[in-house]
Amino acid sequence: MDLAPLEPFSVQIDFSTGLLAPDPDILDRRMFDLAGYFQTDITDPSAEAYSVHELRVPATGNNLLSSTTLLSAGKVGDEYLFTKGHFHANRDRAEIYLTLSGEGLLVMALEDGRTVTKEMRPGIANYVPGYWAHRSVNTGTTPLVFYAVYIGDAGYDYATISERGFPVIVVEGDDGPEVRPNPRYASS
Ligand code: PAN
Ligand code: ZN
């Protein structure tokens, strides 16, 4: 082996808040980071949208990275708040999402526009195979908290989603969340 093995470690995860101990790397996303992602303009650019709390592990293909995401509840127009969403830069890298609290939908899409939407609820683990872009949508009234585990060299391609959008959007309908075609989706 070229490199010394990492030391085994443990982390404490608070299932209701998603907070980790010891201290993770934290990435904060505010509403202005999501400008242009919704059908309507955002109204409060400085409001917290979500944060990603990642365990400190080298981002290499022999490691597993993992993080909690704390996604606020709320809407922009009639669309529920969501994460930016991405393909993995290394397209074939897979991922698992385990929901810890709150409720939502995991929207996944292939580059050809095919979509699959799965429920996110505490105790449900969602498997995201390689090649599927993924976005979490908080359809509840409390933060949506989930733990994600991904191959260390998965990386992020945000540009494709930022330019084309997802093929579907999730809006509040008369009887709760509805998944509808995205009128602004730019198919390839
Ligand atoms: C997750 C996401 C996290 C935030 O850890 O990165 O939920 O979503 P965006 O990265 O789309 O802003 C993951 O899928 N990692 O690969
Ligand atoms: Zn991912």
Amount of beta strand = 35-45%
CATH class identity: Mainly Beta
Q: Tell me the CATH superfamily.
A: Jelly Rolls
Helix fraction by DSSP (H/I, runs of at least 4): under 10%
Number of strands: 15
Termini separation: 44 Å
The class by helix and strand makeup works out as mainly beta
Uncertain segments: none
Mean pLDDT, to the nearest integer, reads 97
Named at the architecture level, the CATH assignment is: Sandwich
Which cofactor or ligand species appear? 5-phospho-D-arabinohydroxamic acid, zinc ion
H/E series: EEEEEEEEEEEEEHEE
> CATH topology, anyone?
Jelly Rolls
How many DSSP helices? 1
> What's the overall geometry?
globular
What's the structural domain tally?
A: 1
Radius of gyration: 16 Å
* Major beta-sheet overview: 6 strands, antiparallel
- Biggest sheet strand order reads 3-4-5-13-8-11
What's the gist of this structure?
The chain is mainly beta and 188 residues long.
How would you describe the overall organization of this protein?
The chain is mainly beta and 188 residues long. The protein has one domain: Jelly Rolls (Sandwich), CATH 2.60.120.10. Helices cover 3% and strands 41% of the residues. It is built from 1 helix and 15 strands, in the order E-E-E-E-E-E-E-E-E-E-E-E-E-H-E-E. Strands 3-4-5-13-8-11 form a 6-stranded antiparallel beta sheet, with no helix packed on it. The model has no long low-confidence stretch (mean pLDDT 97). 5-phospho-D-arabinohydroxamic acid binds next to strand 5, strand 12 and strand 13.
